Amino acid sequence: MKRWLALGVIMLMSIVVVAYETNASDRNFFLPDPLGGIKIVIDAGHGGEDGGASKGEVIEKDITLAIAQHVEKQLKKKGATVVMTRTKNGDVIDEHAPSEKYGTLRERKKQDIFLRKDIVEKEKPDIFITIHANAIPETKWRGAQVFYHKEGHADGELLAKNIQQSIRTNLKNTDREALSIKQIYLLKKVEVPAALVETGFISNDEERALLIDKGYQKKMADAIVEGIEEYLLAKFE
User: Fold this and answer.
1) pLDDT tens by residue, 57-74
2) Running DSSP on this structure, what letter comes out for residue 175?
3) How many other CB atoms are found less than 10 A from the CB of residue 199?
4) How far apart are CA 158 and CA 146, in angstroms?
5) What letter would DSSP give residue 98?
6) Structural domains in the chain?
7) Contact 61, 103 (CB under 8 A)
8) Residue 39: exposure state from Cβ atoms within 10 A (0-12, 13-18, ≥19)
9) In which band, very low, low, confident or very high, does the pLDDT at 33 lie, cut at 50, 70 and 90?
10) In the chain, which residue ranges form alpha helices assigned H by DSSP?
11) Contact 114/96 with Cβ under 8 angstroms?
């Protein structure tokens, strides 16, 4: 009896040692992923000939792609399935329909937006996030802001507000609030909870410097991911 007890103690100690020596990625095998079973489409705004907002050599399409890639990485770490509308410098047409040709940039931009919507419809995600950066003639304005469409999915507002609160809490450099917006086609047409994240103003000197900083891009991405998590907790609690 004592022999079996001793063997049991040895086996238990062995399991404890193995558990502590197992690295974090291996331990995930035993732990539930916080975003397991969730599919998210991440859209890096603009791309290719459509650079979006700019100031000197700083171009929106580069900022949005960098932040979107950080968001993708963090979401995947948490177990989510992530679909990117674009992963390269080109637009979505370059990546998904390279044989398509258009007579004008305006027509190409329109069809590019339609293709992004088609990707969401095909993938049927739980959430859609499109990432952008802002610019206006006046240089004083700054601050990240998240938008939703009143005529879009009913949960878009809750999603936008959770991401906005996360940005306010984690970055501590904006007091803006999430707002509804009418002009954004994608937010209205995709049939899933959707939000547009304007990560800041390229036209503001201080914020432009932040938006091209790799460390700040990662902080912004982390805040977006935390906001998504908070939305899901609020939605399913």
Assistant:
1) 999 999 999 999 999 999
2) -
3) 29
4) 11
5) T
6) 1-31 (no CATH), 33-236 (3.40.630.40)
7) no
8) middle
9) confident
10) 2-21, 24-27, 60-77, 92-96, 105-123, 156-171, 185-189, 205-211, 214-236
11) no
